[in-house]
Amino acid sequence: MINHHGTFRASAAGYLLLMAYLVLVKLAITFVPDAFRSTAQAAVFAWPVIAALIVLGLGGLWLARRIGLPGFWNPDLPAARKWLLPVLLGVAFGGLAIGVDLLTGWTDVVERKLGIPSIHIDFPASLLIYPGGAVIVNVIYYLIPIPLLVWLISGVILRGRFREPVFWSVAAAAAAIEPLTQDLSYPGPVWVMLLVLLSDYALNFAQVALFRRGGFFATVLLRVSFYLIWHVMWGFFS
Q: Rounded to two decimals, what is the model's pTM?
């Protein structure tokens, strides 16, 4: 695994800046409460949720350093790998999502079932909300469960052994959370559901791989870039 990098104070400072952005988004969307497509989307920006993310996320960063992960980011990585690679991957996965949608028309099926004009939040609110959503998703899916479970299984139960295989086992399971909770309910053909599920799993697995090497912020960069292509740009033009 990766050696400890930097200080927890630096990781916490970076993380709190992301949380400050969530607060700004929450304040801004107070004036446009109908910007969301569902109550579930709006619920993740509730004040109690943001407060919980601040506390639990900082705990996740602290545990990440305990198990040898780089925390918020890895200062030893060159800029191209630390900043550019996640962005390029996010753009690539955004292009993949658009391609799958053009091939299958799966979003039209979902929109008809839900009775909504689009699964994408309208521009310009999308430009503000989706980066905040990317932060929230990554905290819930990766930053909280992965360090906690790896620490419990490898650090406590196995007394520090098998940390590498434990990490990848936990990370592979964490990468399945979003696809299994969102894509299995697709009301169309099974092959379309499987294609969407596999592409979503590839996106999530790329993020947990970045978490291991580049730190939490690399996962955020990937998902923000993905959302900007898939939800913001494609949502605007489709």
A: 0.91
